[in-house]
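Quick start: what a row looks like.
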Amino acid sequence: MWSRLPFGDELRAELGSPRRPRRLGSSPRSRVWRVALPEATAVVKQIVDGPDADERYAREVTALKLAARAETPVVPALLATDPGKRVLVLEHLEHRRPADDWIVEYAAALARVHATGRPEDAGVLPRWQGPNQADTESFLRLAEALEVRVAAGVPGELKDLVDRLDEAPGDALLHGDPCPGNDLHTPTGIRFIDFEQASLGSGLMELAYLRIGFPTCWCVTSASEPLLLRAESAYRNEWRALTGSEARDGLGDACVGWLIRGDALVERARRESIDHLARIPHQDWKWGTATARQRLVHRLGVVARMSAGHTSLSGISSLSTALRQRMVARWPALQPVPAKRP
């Protein structure tokens, strides 16, 4: 284990020699250890080789520095870095089992992360990228494959939606993957980790995670409506307190954006490869706590409810309702996504 711990001379000179290194679980895109340093216990994270490894490392370091502006801490302290080896040394935090209503505190903490982004940060991180025309075409082909009629106005609604999301204003610091497991529930509040996909944009794109079912995550949950309303209120109250402004409307748009992205049905290593929505009529697959069809049925139900009564989304609402009904009839054994996180 010592030979694999990437803790070079410069880090030793700055922080002291590490003792008792213990490898921790992590994604295939990183290696993580817990170590004892002279002053404290710390976490050593190394971004592994890959075509985007340097970018992921740079995003994480930048995001951690931006998030450190928060008056109430929302990330572990960044103790030191070794850019040559893509290593970060972070404050170690103890994680407690979340409460049943964890999404309320989570939403407030997410608002605190988002609020650390500022207009003058433009360019230090990429802008958030939403769905594109290929995603809308794939979604429409899915409806055709499932023999669900698409009203004449739906392609236009989807095109307008993509344009709205692409132009959505906002300078929030977006985590990029704010999933169960990337939130540490500590005695002093929630801290977020793993900012390798951080970007800047509208915070609504991540507030939507609560309703749409954590679309980039292995762990899907479906909270009750009263709990969702409490969480969304907590987010908006925290955002108002920190920024002096109201969070913009557009949560329905954000949910539709996640619905039509086939890449939100698979883990990151399999994204940007094939049309995953095209697989749905012929194949189901498990990722984390739910299958692809379970995820899609859940998202269709959310969008049908969220977009009902919105003139700009009326066709999408009807199509989502019909698609969900067709999937439930075709695969009656499908179960709802879990109500609680593992």
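That is the whole record. Residues 43 and 161 are 41 Å apart (CA to CA). The longest strand covers residues 30-36.
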